[in-house]
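quick one before i forget lol
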Amino acid sequence: MTRQTVLVIGASGFIGRRIVRQLAANQWARPIAASRRAAPDSCSESVATVRLDATNSQDLTRALADADAVISCVAGDAPDILDSGRALIEAAAQRSPPPRLVWLGSLAAYGSATGAVDERAPLLGDLGPYSAAKAAIDALAAQFPFITRLRPGIVYGPESPWWSDRIARLLVARRLGDLGGAGAGTCNLVHVEDVAAAAIRCLMLPAAGGEAFNLGSPSPPSWNEYFRLYAQALDSSPVRRVTRARLAFELRVAGPALKAAEKVFPRSQLLGSWPAVRPWLTTLCRHDIRMSVAKAEQLLGMRWRPLEAGLAQTAKWFLEGGRSS
């Protein structure tokens, strides 16, 4: 197969770094790491880099000129997702022929849907601005046959800011644990290396063009089970039983106070060890949505990293001093 030039937008982010590393180890591809920074920290000297504002159409048009394919894993808030998604699709559609494009969406696009959902389920996008933005760009991208849309669930693994770093801090501090009924929702976990592998396979398989794929565990645990297994890997068992009263204190008193303190002292190591429990996290922990991943298994040939192995690797990273920031 001819070596392909693959532009990775959002290359300095958690998922983008993994994609660049996997592409660099693949003789099929020549990655170009695009970021607002001149050179993402994760890049070796052999990886080409480019500074790129993903919301700037002119920047994107120049960056796309020599790319055979594009993987977009831009992180950020709802305005960033909307602006960067629209600008990228517009710039790619103007090229003839357009490059193969993989866009990383999210489970959040399904919004408040419950029960089992496959890729044909409606994108409700009704769980706030982030959910709405992911649903809007996913729906826009579906109109173009050269775009593949990925919908990963809870992406964990070494360097994951929330699901591996902050959750570990909360578990070790015993401020998070068994939430009872408040943690009975489904935790659609997927390892970051599996997400990166899926993105690359989409570029290598012509049949993936124009398709959407859920990415997650075929047998996802509950959030309570995730916390228990992760705490066990962190040598912080047994997990604490978090009562309703304790959870209410975290959300109404401790959380807002810590969040306010983080704004005043953003570089405080002490505050970094005590992240706030956010209301959106407890909403997720109650949400009973289970993504079907059969399509990714059948068409992309995905085989998922076992949860116990993934958590052991992640806990090792954390206990050895790993931090996402």
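fyi The domain at 4-153+190-216+290-304 is CATH 3.40.50.720 (Rossmann fold).
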